[in-house]
Every structure is written in structure tokens, then in C-alpha cells.
Design a protein that fits this description.
Radius of gyration: 18 Å
Structural class: alpha+beta
Number of domains: 1
Helix content: 40-55%
Number of helices: 2
CATH class: Alpha Beta
CATH architecture: 2-Layer Sandwich
Order of helices and strands: HEEEH
Strand order of the largest sheet: 1-2-3
Largest sheet: 3 strands, antiparallel
Shape: rod-shaped
Low-confidence stretches: none
Strand content: 15-25%
């Protein structure tokens, strides 16, 4: 029984270490051919958003909004995949 408890504690320590590593990992994703780039942490925190000036068209804000959403969603997907690899259930 003590061996099982020790294994559980080790697994918990490893899980915490993996979570910390993920939180310190940054994923970069872009959309629209690179006109919008986002950086997101492994903890799903949006760290940076870069929009190239040529993407800004006052007469077509909707397209820029769509590209930002696409870039953020791509970053979310990449972080989710990374977390699934690092923190298997």
C-alpha cells in the first residue's frame, strides 16, 4: 500500500512539473498568410497579438476580425494538442 501511495505522489509531482513547463511554453500561430500572428502560453493565456499594418482596412474591419479569430483558434488548437501530449489522462 505504501508503494502505491509513493507512486501516486511521484505521478502527482510529475504532473505538476509538466503543467509548469506548459505554462512556460509559448505557441505561435498565424492566419491570413501571416498578417495576424498570436502567441499563446501552454496555459491558454494570450501573450501577444501582432497585426501587420497592411491588414488594417477601415472599410473592411470584418475580414480583419475573421483573421484574428482564425489565428487565436489555431493557437488554441496547438496548445490543446500540446497539452494532450504532455498531460495524457
Amino acid at each position: 500500500m505504501q508503494q502505491l501511495m509513493k507512486q501516486a505522489q511521484e505521478a502527482q509531482k510529475q504532473m505538476e512539473k509538466s503543467k509548469e513547463e506548459l505554462a512556460n511554453t509559448a505557441i505561435e500561430a498565424s492566419a491570413g498568410g501571416g498578417i495576424v500572428t498570436v502567441e499563446m502560453s501552454g496555459a491558454y493565456e494570450l501573450l501577444n497579438l501582432h497585426i501587420k499594418p497592411e491588414a488594417v482596412d477601415p472599410d473592411d474591419v470584418e475580414t480583419l476580425e475573421d483573421v484574428v479569430i482564425a489565428a487565436v483558434n489555431e493557437a488554441l488548437n496547438q496548445v490543446t494538442k500540446l497539452r494532450e501530449e504532455k498531460l495524457p489522462l
